[in-house]
Known about the structure:
Elements lengths: L2 H10 L13 H6 L15 E7 L5 E7 L1 H5 L3 E6 L24 E2 L5 E7 L2 H8 L3 E6 L6 H6 L10 E4 L2 H4 L5 E9 L12 E5 L5 E5 L4 H12 L6 E5 L14 H14 L3 E3 L3 H7 L6 E9 L5 E13 L5 H10 L9 E10 L13 H19 L3 H8 L22 H11 L2 H14 L3 E14 L8 E8 L5 E5 L8 H13 L6 E3 L2 E2 L14 H28 L6 E4 L2 E4 L2 E4 H10 L5 E7 L4 E3 L4 E3 L3 E14 L5 E10 L7 H19 L31 E6 L25 H12 L16 H12 L2
Parallel strand pairs: 1-12, 10-11, 14-15, 18-19, 28-29
Antiparallel strand pairs: 1-5, 2-4, 2-6, 3-5, 7-15, 8-13, 9-10, 9-12, 11-20, 13-14, 16-27, 17-18, 17-24, 21-22, 22-23, 25-26, 27-28
Helix pairs in contact: 7-8, 10-11, 11-12, 15-16, 19-20
Amino acid sequence: MDKSTFEDRKAIIAGPMHGSLQHDSAHKHVTGTADYIDDIPEPAGLLHGALGLSDRAHAEILSIDLSAVAAYPGVVWVFTGKDVPGVNDVSSNGSHDEPLLAEALVQFHGQPIFAVIAETRDAARRAARLAKIDYRDLPHWSDIDGALANGSPLVITPMTLRRGEPDTEMANAAMRLKGQMRIGGQEHFYLEGHIAVAIPGEDDEVTVWSSTQHPSEIQHIVGHVLDIPSNAVTVNVRRMGGGFGGKETQGNQFAALAAIAAKKLGRAIKFRPDRDEDMSATGKRHDFLVDYELGFDAEGRIHVVDATYAARCGFSSDLSGPVTDRALFHADSSYFYPHVHLASKPLKTHTVSNTAFRGFGGPQGMLGAERFIEEIAYAVGKDPLDVRKLNFYGQPGSERTLTPYHQEVEDNIIARIVEELEETAEYQARRNAIIAFNRDSRYIRKGIALTPVKFGISFTMTAFNQAGALVHIYQDGSIHLNHGGTEMGQGLYTKVAQVLADSFQVDIDRVKITATTTAKVPNTSATAASSGSDLNGMAAYDAARQIKERLVAFAAEKWDVEAVDVVFLPNRVRVGEIEIPFPDFIKQAYFARVQLSAAGFYKTPKIHWDRKAGRGTPFYYFAYGASCTEVSIDTLTGEYLIDRTDILHDVGRSLNPAIDLGQVEGAFVQGMGWLTTEELWWDDKGRLRTHAPSTYKIPLASDRPKIFNVRLAEWSENTEATIGRSKAVGEPPLMLAISVLEALSMAVASVANYKVCPRLDAPATPERVLMAVERMKRV
């Protein structure tokens, strides 16, 4: 049965796919019965690990005295980088620039130097603080300005995107301006921090339970540090208490340390850092400094863009290359640039190496683009929304469809999304009312903004766009599902189970969702890049297709009918004129020796990318959305309220509207935190001082918009052949929160009667808003 036949049949048979089914673990989340790694019953003889961290930002290690650490009651073993059996490196990209344990040189405050294994977690943590380490301090810098001032090296080769003639066309632009924007980083702040448990097996075998988005990478890293093949390492993940990209590579060190100790001591080992250590020793969202020059006409139509995106990457490369690349990929937001030059500058700093975070550089690139629009709007005296619409990509066939990386935008629905939201949110009437309100209000000022989202879906590393799934049907008709995707609360397991239940037309409770494990599906990609449902859903569908083809052939032969006369109906199968309950049908297939198991596989078609040339088709399709936010600020204190947000978001034909709505709402609030309250700060000694909830302010439930209207674009359907014609939903909605920053900017601009762009940097904390208000008073 080919794909088109299946999709045609699906259109007339009601199945669980596209339905608002409950998240499979929702009841466990709210009752506290969902098992995370720290809830697993501890094996007999379990030992606990703790990190010994550097208290210098950049220094040579002259000597290490760990005698007091080893002598602490309960300590079983203390080890350093010299005790690593294989290679002392946990870099995710083969660059070998990220030691598991620093040996001769430390490059950020909080870098692990040694590990302590003890009978209790408390003993391990207390002992780790007793080390005596002598250093020779070296010059250090912890931010972008320091890196630029000191001629910092780059952690990876930068990327450049170029189209048209930006160098010569800038001089031909009717109007020009230059500017700079600072964009802050963000801590992942999971509910469940990093954790790993390693259990030694016979010979060279080891089993690792890790809170990771990338089990296959943990498998590879553990084999790397133990000098054993990957087939000796099994990595299991049932669920994470949040991932957001921070568990794509950052779990490597904890799993590796646990595995080394487990094999050395022959006992199970658990590493669970506390929140302060977790925040100090693991990477965050990259902060950026964007320098730009724009050329445009008197109507606000962009003619040329020239911009450089400098990023604080930390001491090693980690994922900074693809993160800064994706920032450039989204530096166009939803807008066509006739002539464009974009360059990345991934700077080395003496801070923890920054890593993946929901959006993966895309939010920073897109935020810069919205600043471009805002700057132009103030320069020509127009509503920013009018300038946005003027610069949108065109429809296929027009000259305005080519991105800076030379991919055609063929599925553009941004104009329809924005126009629909503009009408339903009553944007124009409310904006006029806000301008009138600001004219008469002395201390409270309001702002409103409507901003678009266009986000590319696929890993830009082409090889990662593949997935596998393993499906078994047992004699009683129950179904076992395993795939390479990981569940971090986003509902991936539920969605893929819906795909499988829909394929066989059975109730969802007949499908058993099992923990992700490298022992069942090998060589998996990280659950990242918003691709979890796309890749794993299609892989599960492929496995179901194989089994169904065998079942159809069996039924056609046994009952002497044509293959088209075998139809899967809800919980039963029609064969010619008879209908057989699904479990009975499966049992008969078993006795006829039909193979009831299959390994499915999927690879994303059409995509390719040449980084050196800056050309290709890195994305399979784009997801779109728009948000309209209204805010109120107090010009005396800089404090503000998010009064109302209206969102219309495109997820294609949703696999599960209830889960997708939750993803949109959660992503918006997380993005709002990034752009308003969440501020990372390192002191002059390179110490992260915002390392706990007392100093790092994530949004609370009370910070959500007072009126929060969220809708999915129900009319949308993916033009590409994705699973169920759905679209990804993990990352794109985070950028809907840009409307909050833009609305705050309008409120600030009212103080100067909207004459100049406030150039409000992110995060727009109350302090930063107040300083911007004071600047506007002097205009």
